[in-house]
Amino acid sequence: MSEKAAGGLPPDVLRSTDPVNPAGQPSPDQETTLSAPFTTLAVGARENRFRAEQLSRGERIGHYEILNLLGEGGFSAVYAARHLYLNHEVALKTLRRGATGREDSERFLREAQALAILASPHVIRVHDAGMWNDLPYIVLEKITGDNVQDLVARRGPFSLGRAMDLLEELGRVLVLQEQRGILHRDIKPSNVLQRTDGSFCLADYGLVGRADATQRAAREALEKWDDVTLSGQFFGTPLYIAPEQIEGRADHRTDLFLLGMTAWECLAGKPARMHLTGYGSDLTTLFALARQPLPTARSVRDDVPEGLDAVLSGLLAPAPEERYHSAAEFVQDLEAFRYQGRPPQGSTRGDVFVAMPFAPGFGAPYEAIEQACVRVRLRPRRMDQLVFVKDIWNQIVQEIEACAMVVADFSAAEREAWPNPNVLTEAAHARAINKALIILSQDPPERLPFDWRHIPVLRYTPDPAGLQGLTEQLTTKLRHAMLATVH
Fold it and tell me: 99 falls in which pLDDT band (50, 70, 90)?
């Protein structure tokens, strides 16, 4: 890995704590190669000078006061905490009671380093890392949304649009990981979070590794860390692991497989291996199933189009050499299918659900709305443009809940006296869950239903001048609405 491959940090930052290179410890004269936030952590890890314990409400860690426990993993615990001076809530991660040995503390350090190096909008953000009375800690952004596993359990399978959102956003993370020489190795639904604006975020880099790890070194690490295997984390999670992980091997194609497993579950409602004959939850059965080809998503959900199914198959081939060669190649295929020649939206500040009639005459107003959205880096989503709709109301609910705001056009379609009832229902749902809502109409106030007449309405005419005015006015309203959601 080159000097620049780790985002400007020297290669020894990762090498010194790499689980697949346990012998590659830096010499004393290399100590200065560690960046300042991680130096104390690294020294404590190498000298076994750290502690791990359960924290209680009110305890202080540096400038942070513990509020409550959010969750626990194999060797770490995450707490809600408050910065004492800024009154800002964060997630504070520490080694949990029972974590022992140098390996646990080194994993902890690697995660902090990887998050700092990646710095992607679709990776959980790290604010700080350090030691407090020999207790190592990482300060992370606190995300109030659910993880994908909980979303699927509560709402059922994702709509196709939401599943492609997840693939596209996390695919870009994998592109960045390949550029930085980093492996996640434990991508799964419970490690993918949904922010309040609907975007997805990859978390828990506790099993992070280097992409240039050799098979021999990986096997040596497995032998050394046999307790990790027995506790259920076999350089990953048995229900999701790629076949090569059983042999202690992993490269960038392993993370592609794990992303495919996550998207498959989002589409089907349960993990892919649960659909295999002989499924059982014990480790021996799971390791045997890990080598079997998986059913296609289309075989368990018939509205999955062939193009998307082909992309998923390119992620989920049992043999690494049969998968996509790189994350960039995968993202290119996904975008080619998803956008059908239209330019991809790229990085956005959120989505706008556009509720308007499925009727002729609304193409030009939608283009005006689209122009306004693009100006403020928002992505418009219109239901009649989302193909492969099966359970339409479930998809509408998911789209509205995931978006940053809703724009509803109450204009009556030709030969209709009142706004489209579906548009009214979508707008009512947005109001019920407190989504920012902007209403448009070509019609006079008396054409609105009585219970909507107290809501401000942006009126426009469908001629070129009127549509240009709609774009200008809506751009301003969208900017104001985005500021309001931030504050």
Answer: low
Residues 6+ away with beta carbon under 8 Å from 379: 345, 348, 350, 351, 352, 373
pLDDT at 17: 33
Are 148-339 and 351-486 equal in CATH topology?
Answer: no
CB 257 within 8 A of CB 246: no
In this prediction, what percent of the chain has a pLDDT beyond 90?
36
Please report the beta strands in 277-389, taking only residues with DSSP state E, as ranges in sequence order: 351-355, 379-382
Residue 220: pLDDT band by 50, 70, 90 thresholds? very low
CA atoms within 13 A on the CB side of 438: 23
Do the Cβ atoms of 22 and 101 come closer than 8 Å? no
First to last CA, the chain: 42
Ordered alpha helix ranges (H), 20-147: 36-46, 101-118
The topology under which CATH files domain 12-140 is Phosphorylase Kinase; domain 1 (3.30.200)
Q: For residue 94, what pLDDT is reported?
A: 86
Spatial CA neighbour of 119 closest among 179, 167, 63, 162: 179
SS3 61: strand
For residues 485 and 487, what is the distance between their CA atoms, to the nearest angstrom? Answer: 6
Question: What is the distance between the alpha carbons of residues 258 and 293, in angstroms, rounded to a whole number?
Answer: 14
Q: What pTM value is reported for the model? A: 0.69
Provide φ and ψ at 80, rounded to 5°: -75, 135
Indicate the class that CATH gives domain 351-486: alpha beta
**40 has pLDDT over 80:** no
- Domain ranges, ordered by start, for the chain: 12-140, 148-339, 351-486
Q: How much is the pLDDT for 301?
A: 92
SS3 content of the chain, % helix, strand, coil (to 5): 45, 15, 40
- Give counts: helices (H), strands (E), the chain: 16, 15
Q: Return the pLDDT at 286.
A: 83
| Distance between CA atoms of residues 298 and 309, nearest Å | 6
376 φ, ψ (degrees, to nearest 5): -110, 20
Question: What pLDDT sits at residue 105?
Answer: 64
Amino acid at 5: A
pLDDT per position as a tens digit, 363-394? 899 999 999 988 887 888 887 555 445 667 77
**pLDDT at position 55, please?**
84
d(CA 74, CA 95): 9
For residue 232, give both structure tokens: 């259920």
Rg (CA), the chain: 25
CATH code for the structural domain at 148-339 = 1.10.510.10
**How far, in Å, CA of 440 to CA of 90, rounded?**
38
- Per the DSSP assignment, residues forming a β-bridge with 83 are 64
Give the H or E element holding residue 253.
Answer: helix 252-268
d(CA 459, CA 461): 7
Query: For residue 260, how far is the Cα from the chain centroid?
Result: 13
